[in-house]
Design a protein that fits this description.
The protein has 336 residues and is of the alpha/beta class. The protein folds into two domains: 7-126 and 315-335, ATPase, nucleotide binding domain (Nucleotidyltransferase, domain 5, 2-Layer Sandwich), CATH 3.30.420; 130-311, ATPase, nucleotide binding domain (Nucleotidyltransferase, domain 5), CATH 3.30.420. The chain is built from eleven helices and twelve strands. It has helices at residues 44-60, 100-108, 117-127, 190-193, 195-207, 214-217, 226-234, 238-262, 281-297, 300-304, 317-335, and strands at 7-13, 17-23, 29-36, 68-75, 79-80, 85-86, 112-116, 136-142, 146-152, 155-156, 266-270, 308-310. A hairpin with a 5-residue loop joins strand 2 (17-23) and strand 3 (29-36). Helix 1 (44-60) runs parallel beside helix 2 and helix 5 (195-207) packs antiparallel against helix 8 (238-262). It is globular and about 60 Å long. The two termini are 31 Å apart. It binds zinc ion. Residues 169, 181, 183, 185, 188, 190 line the site of zinc ion (ZN).
């Protein structure tokens, strides 16, 4: 591949894996790899491994660190972006209060831009993914939890204390019977629309006696998952279809609030739970359901302009976006 220099490196730290990618000036991935996060040891071990991976990828591509202008690092929060410190990550207890940005800068000898992992993924979609023709977007990731990021004009909206864009914790239910969010508060979006919540809602319906194809498929070796619900829905299973339809309504309520507050050009749905995405009938029906519910709640002028799409970059969004944020900082420094 004819990569445009300078190159940028993106490092996307997750609770299970760390993804490392070399990205060119146009956002094209030159090379990428991943390795298991060393979660039970202080982060210097994982950072050293990341540095070795970067050097190996560059060497295999016939490049060197000299071709790299800057590095982007995305980690789960909570974090202090300005200080470059990861605070109290739930999946990485040994990383508590570690100066991860400076550790990576020291290891690579490059300036490092630090970002929330969801913000990085949002920037990836904004730069070269399904948000590329838009000037602003909100990404909502539906996975184990509900996360997200907000990008406006090349800028990630992280908030004054690095705790902004917590889209999963928008309140959508204030009733007495509201579900409890993993954060401890009642009625947050994440308690309804994460994969965990979808499985919980479906399990409750099954325990209540609802008939479903899922009953035959579930067993000790295959506990209920959002993917099973998605597959059963594609086979016409009524319970699964109704669970997904309800999920679309809950998500629509969250999006309506965000539309009134932020009014982005596009909402992008990412994360592992996409019900087959735009390639599947159920996936398209899910987006249609989200749009229909949102339109019921927002101002008619907002409803007219509402755009909701699936993300395009999958698991690459995090490292591509981290590299993209590093590139934006680099260009700012260069043009200053
Ligand atoms: Zn919450």
């Amino acid at each position: 591949m004819n990569a445009d220099i300078p190159l940028f490196v993106g490092v996307d730290v997750g609770g299970t894996n760390i993804k490392v990618g070399i990205v060119d000036d146009e956002g094209r991935t030159v090379a990428q790899t991943k390795f298991p996060t060393i979660a039970d040891k202080e982060p210097s071990h994982s950072i050293e491994k990341a540095k070795q991976s970067i050097e190996k990828l560059l060497e295999e591509s016939g490049r060197s660190l000299d071709d790299v202008a800057a590095v982007g690092l995305g980690t789960p929060g909570p974090m202090d972006i300005e200080a470059g410190v990861i605070l109290t990550p739930s999946n990485l207890p040994a990383w508590r209060n570690a100066p991860v940005r400076d550790l990576l800068a020291k290891a690579t000898g490059k300036p490092v831009t630090y970002a929330n992992d969801a913000a990085a993924a949002s920037f990836g979609e904004y730069w070269i993914g399904s948000g590329r023709q838009f000037g602003s977007l909100v990404l909502i990731t539906l996975g184990t939890g509900v996360g997200g990021g907000i990008i406006v004009n090349d800028f990630s909206i992280d908030g004054a204390h690095s705790h902004g864009a917590e889209i999963g914790h928008v309140t959508i239910d204030t009733s007495e019977s509201a579900r409890r969010c993993p954060c401890g508060t009642m009625g947050h979006l994440e308690a309804y629309a994460s994969a965990t919540a979808v499985v919980a809602r479906c399990s409750e319906a099954l325990s209540g006696g609802a008939k479903s194809l899922l009953t035959a498929e579930m067993g000790e070796a295959s506990p209920l998952s959002a993917l099973m619900i998605s597959q059963a829905a594609n086979q016409g299973d009524e319970l699964s279809l109704s669970i997904i339809d309800e999920t679309a309504k809950y998500l629509g309520r969250g999006i309506a609030t965000l539309a009134h507050v932020i009014d982005p050009e596009v909402f992008i749905l990412g994360g592992a739970m996409d019900f087959g995405g735009s390639a599947s009938h159920v996936g398209r029906q899910f987006i249609d359901g989200v749009i229909a519910e949102t339109k019921k709640i927002v101002f008619p002028v907002l409803a007219e302009k509402l755009v909701v799409r699936y993300a395009e970059l999958g698991g690459d969004a995090g490292f591509v976006g981290a590299a993209g944020l590093a590139r934006t900082e680099y260009l700012k420094r260069k043009n200053a």
